[in-house]
Structures are given as structure tokens and as C-alpha cells.
């Protein structure tokens, strides 16, 4: 009988803990309106941020293409986004 009592108390404590956790989750979860506001505030939602990200990606791809075609280690450059040599940054 004692083990049944301990088991019921354990189940009650675990259930209460789960209930408190679920209640806290429900309290801190934003509503639908707040979710929509948060989505609008995300970085890549406005056109200017998207253009800037596209330009950055183009520069990165161009740098990687240059690095693939040259023997120079472009990672050692002070400004590795700019080519240093006359012939595509190639070392003599």
C-alpha cells in the first residue's frame, strides 16, 4: 500500500510540474498578431536588406571564383574582397 501511495504522489508531482511548464509556455508564446509583427521585422523582409544580401553574396561568389582560378592564397590579403594583382590577382 505504501508503494502505491508513493507512486500516486510521484505521478501527482510530475503532473503538476508538467502543468506549470505548459502554463508558462502558453503565457510566453506570442499571439498571432505579435507573430505577424515579428515576421515583418525580420532582417530579409524589406527590399533594401535583400538587395544588400544579394550584393554580399555576389561579392563572395566572385571572390571564391577568383580564389579557384589563382595560385595566390586570397585569405592572406588584408582586404580579400578586392583583387590585388593585374591579371586577376595572380602571383608571378
From TrEMBL:
It is found in: Mitochondrion inner membrane. Coiled coil: none annotated. It is a single-pass membrane protein. InterPro entries: UQCC3. One of its GO terms (cellular component) is mitochondrial inner membrane. It holds the Pfam family UQCC3. One of its GO terms (biological process) is mitochondrial respiratory chain complex III assembly. Keywords: ATP synthesis, Membrane, Mitochondrion, Mitochondrion inner membrane, Transmembrane, Transmembrane helix. PANTHER family: UBIQUINOL-CYTOCHROME-C REDUCTASE COMPLEX ASSEMBLY FACTOR 3. Required for the assembly of the ubiquinol-cytochrome c reductase complex (mitochondrial respiratory chain complex III or cytochrome b-c1 complex), mediating cytochrome b recruitment and probably stabilization within the complex. Thereby, plays an important role in ATP production by mitochondria. Cardiolipin-binding protein, it may also control the cardiolipin composition of mitochondria membranes and their morphology. Belongs to the UQCC3 family. This is Ubiquinol-cytochrome-c reductase complex assembly factor 3. It comes from Macaca mulatta. The lineage of its organism: Eukaryota, Metazoa, Chordata, Craniata, Vertebrata.
Amino acid at each position: 500500500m505504501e508503494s502505491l501511495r508513493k507512486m500516486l504522489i510521484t505521478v501527482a508531482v510530475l503532473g503538476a510540474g508538467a502543468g506549470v511548464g505548459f502554463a508558462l509556455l502558453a503565457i510566453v508564446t506570442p499571439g498571432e498578431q505579435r507573430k505577424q509583427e515579428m515576421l515583418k521585422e525580420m532582417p530579409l523582409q524589406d527590399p533594401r536588406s535583400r538587395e544588400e544580401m544579394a550584393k554580399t553574396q555576389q561579392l563572395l561568389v566572385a571572390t571564391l571564383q577568383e580564389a579557384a582560378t589563382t595560385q595566390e592564397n586570397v585569405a592572406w590579403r588584408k582586404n580579400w574582397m578586392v583583387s590585388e594583382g593585374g591579371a586577376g590577382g595572380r602571383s608571378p
